Amino acid sequence: MQKFKLSTILLGLTSAILLAGCGNEGEAKSSGQESGTTNVSEAVNYTITGVEPGTGITQLTKNTLEEYENLEGWELQESSTVGMLAALDDAIRREEPIIVSGWSPHWKFAAYDLKFLEDPKGTFGGVEHIQTFVRKGLKEDLPNAYKIIDSFNWEIEDIESVVSASQDIPMEEAAANWIENNRDQVAEWVEGTEKVDGKSIEIVLTQWDTERATAEVVGQVLEEQGFKVTLTPVDPVIMFQSIATGNGDASLASWLPTTHASFYEEYKEDLIDLGPSLTGGKNGFVVPAYMDIDSIEELEPKR
Ligand code: PBE
To answer: Which pLDDT score is estimated for 37?
Structure first.
């Protein structure tokens, strides 16, 4: 059973549910009936519905608002991932336009018909991967854990299957089920390691479902090998700090090369980089498929 150490959680989880920032009642339907895309910009009130201030995607979104001249006068409404998803759900129920700071893999793409807006300037980067870092000295201190963590890797389909299962059952149970159904892959990760007797290890992660799924799977595999595992969810920058200072042992939740680039640059000298555990992530402006717009460049500046 993983123990979540709540003391250092610095998550900005707010229960504030955003009112859908998409203009007044009775705005023209965004299902492509109105002409042109100016209505889209007006209808979303020149506003991007965002997430937590401390995330990489918030930094990328702010940079995007700077880099695209046609986004002059636009604002980012920061709140939380919960708030963004509530606003997205509300807008879709009313078939209203909305533009959110979004990423994949994420269950929202299975729940709704969504699309990324094209990003011709590439301000959101390209293919992202989820990268593993461990503290200096882990290999010497906990060689068996180091080897398992270094060997860990899986595909988009794997992480999506755990995350989608966790919509109906606890993440811990979804992870345990995945492990049971993928014993061959788990055997590859633990090959050549020895069981230990209760040695402690702390995995530092972030709050998102993909990172919780990753940490639960790796944590349970380490527990099967005899480790006493603590999972500590924190904000992204705190995660980098905790591994760099040696307070945490391992993190499998960094998004690179773009999302967390600024945090990586600040702490990379004090991190042991074990490379990607998964590739195929993507960040960008996400809209419901019913919106008659395909590129960031079609948005209009606020006059
Ligand atoms: N995310 C999901 C996080 C990392 C994982 C893209 C919202 C971020 O932007 O920091």
So the answer is: 45
Rounded CA separation 226/196 (Å): 5
Tell me the CA–centroid distance for residue 129 and ligand 1, in Å. 11
- Reading the block at residue 178, the tokens are 């995945």
* Residue 205 alpha carbon to ligand 1 centre in Å: 11
DSSP 113-153: -EEEPB-TT-TT-S-EEEEEEE-TTHHHH-HHHHHHHHH--
Distance of CA 62 from the midpoint of ligand 1 (Å)? 14
Q: Closest by alpha carbon to 277, among 185, 117, 150?
A: 150
Give the pLDDT of residue 211: 98
Nearest CA to 151 out of 270, 2, 275 is that of: 275
Ligand 1 atom closest to Cα of residue 210: 5
Burial class from Cβ neighbours inside 10 Å (0-12, 13-18, 19+) for residue 146 reads buried
Ligand 1 shell residues, CB under 6 Å: 51, 55-57, 103, 206, 208, 236, 255, 259, 283
Query: Mean pLDDT by 10-residue block, N- to C-terminus, for the chain (303 residues)?
Result: 51 47 43 54 97 97 98 97 98 97 96 98 98 98 98 98 97 98 98 97 98 98 98 98 98 98 98 98 98 97 92
pLDDT for 4 equals 56
